[in-house]
Each structure stands twice: as structure tokens, then as C-alpha cells.
Backbone:
């Protein structure tokens, strides 16, 4: 594009847009003025609410810190007095069936001994 | 009384910085007074509706004052225009959604409800068709305004921010939320479109 064309477009655009902005009617200017006053008032009101998210975050962090401290300072749960060997644990688990196991073993012995000779 | 028509957004920081006695409130008010008319014209070019444009500018000024009034004044122009452009885009999105949802409706209404609340808003403004307005429509400047309004959104944003608001490329990029290269591309295309449109208008 020719630079002079570009300048001409810039100049004409600025002139037209400036004329449009300068020619606003009184009612519109009044509404703009009211909007500006509200915005300026809001800028004053903003500091009270500006820190609200940080206050909420601070309160949440304080609650977390208190909870964590309480958990850490709680007395530890008592440990089991003696660690049981694995075999004993297995026996404890099978405790209810001990009689049956003994009966089965008895019948195995009876079967073995009755094959050839009389145990008596 | 400050003549706001003679100020550009870039002039404001210099004026306010030199005024050591002015309060933060006074600085903010002067800045908003300097940009509000141009902001309204910018929004009106995008929406082609004065009331919608006024709502957009009011929302933009409120949001800017709440969020960025504590920023250094030299940063205000791109920040304000960023807020303004975001509000304009939000308006376009909402309008597109409304058209998708209610475009099939014969009377076009979600705004056509008979709740009576906005009855005065629907009354035609006689000033919009006054003889003065019709005469002004023949003014040569209106052809340029019309051509700018018809630009694609991003091209119009780049053109107005660079050429009219006087932001530099970096400030325009910050206001548009894009790269400096994109700003140059949009601006170049906008100028080419305007040139072609104005040549057609001359013929």
C-alpha cells in the first residue's frame, strides 16, 4: 500500500471517529458520566473485598495447620506386646477345626494299621 | 475542566504523572473521562446499538476500576481496552447464543416478552430519524465510519487501537490478547479493506 494512501486513511478515520465521539448527545454524555462516577465509587469500595479471597485462604490454611498439629500430637496407639510367629498365627486361625484334624489323623492311622495287621 | 476530547489514552499517564497533587481518585476519574467517549464509539461500532454500547462501557469501567485502579497509570490504557474488548466479545457470544436458541422463533423474542418492564426501551427513539441525523448520514465521514464498522472484528480492534487510540504495537497486542505479529497482520488487512471500500465509495 502506498504510504500516502495509508496516511490518508488514518487521517480520515481519525477525523470521522473524533467527530462521532465529539457529537454524542447530552443524554448519552450524562449516562457516561453516571457510569464513570459509579466506577470511581467502586474503586473505593474494592479494597474491602479485594482481600476477601486471601482472607478465606488464610482461614483455611489456619484450620489445616490446627488439624495437622492435633493429629501429630495425639498419643500413638499401643503396639502389640509380642510379635507372633507365623506358625502360631496359622494355628490360631485353624483353632476351630483342631478336633476335626485330629479325627482325620486318627482315621488315617486306623486305615494304615488295619491294612496288614491288627494293632492290638 | 479537562477537555477530554483532546486527550488520547496515551496522553493520560503523562498528564496524571505531572499532577503530583492529584489523588488516586482524581487520576482514575480523569482517565475514565478521557477514554469513555471513544470507548462508547468503539462499542457502538461493534454492536451497532447505542444502549448495548453504553452497557458495555459501563461494565468495562466498573470492572477496570475494581481490578486495575491500583495498577500504575501508564498501564491503564491497554488494561482498559483489554477489558472493553473482552466485554464486546462477551456481548457477541451472548448474541450468537440467543440467535441460535431463539432465531427460529417468529417474533424473535426472548426480548419480546410482555412483562412490561422494558416497554420504554422498545419505543422508537425519534432522534434516531431526525432530519439532523439524516443530513449527517450524508457526511463523508459516515462512509469511513460505516467501512470501519464493517471490518471483521479483529481487524477493527487492531485498527481502532493502533490508529485511533494511539496504542503502540505491544499495547495493542496486550489489549487484544494476541501477538505483535498478529496485530500487524490484522492492521494491514484492515487498511487494505478500508482502502478498497473507500475506492468503491469514490466511484
Residues:
Amino acid at each position: 500500500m502506498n504510504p500516502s494512501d495509508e496516511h490518508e486513511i488514518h487521517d480520515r478515520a481519525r477525523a470521522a471517529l473524533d467527530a462521532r465521539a465529539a457529537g454524542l448527545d447530552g443524554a448519552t454524555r450524562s449516562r457516561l458520566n453516571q457510569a464513570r462516577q459509579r466506577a470511581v465509587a467502586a474503586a473505593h469500595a474494592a479494597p474491602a473485598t479485594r482481600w476477601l479471597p486471601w482472607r478465606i485462604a488464610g482461614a483455611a490454611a489456619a484450620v489445616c495447620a490446627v488439624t495437622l498439629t492435633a493429629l501429630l500430637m495425639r498419643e500413638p496407639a499401643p503396639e502389640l506386646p509380642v510379635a507372633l510367629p507365623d506358625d502360631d498365627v496359622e494355628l490360631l486361625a485353624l483353632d476351630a477345626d483342631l478336633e476335626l484334624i485330629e479325627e482325620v489323623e486318627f482315621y488315617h492311622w486306623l486305615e494304615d494299621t488295619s491294612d496288614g495287621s491288627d494293632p492290638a | 475542566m479537562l477537555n477530554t476530547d483532546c486527550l488520547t489514552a496515551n496522553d493520560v499517564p503523562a498528564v496524571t504523572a505531572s499532577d503530583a497533587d492529584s489523588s488516586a481518585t482524581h487520576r482514575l476519574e480523569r482517565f475514565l473521562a478521557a477514554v469513555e467517549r471513544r470507548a462508547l464509539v468503539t462499542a457502538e461500532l461493534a454492536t451497532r446499538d447505542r444502549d448495548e454500547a453504553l452497557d458495555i462501557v459501563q461494565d468495562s469501567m466498573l470492572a477496570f476500576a475494581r481490578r486495575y485502579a491500583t495498577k500504575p497509570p501508564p498501564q491503564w490504557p491497554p488494561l482498559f481496552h483489554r477489558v472493553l474488548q473482552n466485554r464486546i466479545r462477551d456481548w457477541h457470544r451472548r448474541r450468537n447464543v440467543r440467535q441460535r436458541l431463539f432465531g427460529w422463533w417468529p417474533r424473535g423474542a426472548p426480548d419480546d416478552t410482555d412483562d412490561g418492564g422494558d416497554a420504554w426501551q422498545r419505543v422508537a427513539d425519534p432522534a434516531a430519524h431526525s432530519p439532523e441525523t439524516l443530513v449527517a448520514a450524508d457526511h463523508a465521514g459516515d462512509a469511513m465510519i460505516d467501512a470501519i464498522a464493517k471490518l471483521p472484528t479483529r481487524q477493527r480492534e487492531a485498527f481502532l487501537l493502533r490508529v485511533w487510540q494511539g496504542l503502540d504495537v505491544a499495547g495493542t497486542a496486550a489489549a487484544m490478547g494476541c501477538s505483535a505479529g498478529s496485530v500487524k497482520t490484522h492492521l494491514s488487512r484492515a487498511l487494505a479493506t478500508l482502502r478498497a471500500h473507500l475506492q468503491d465509495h469514490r466511484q
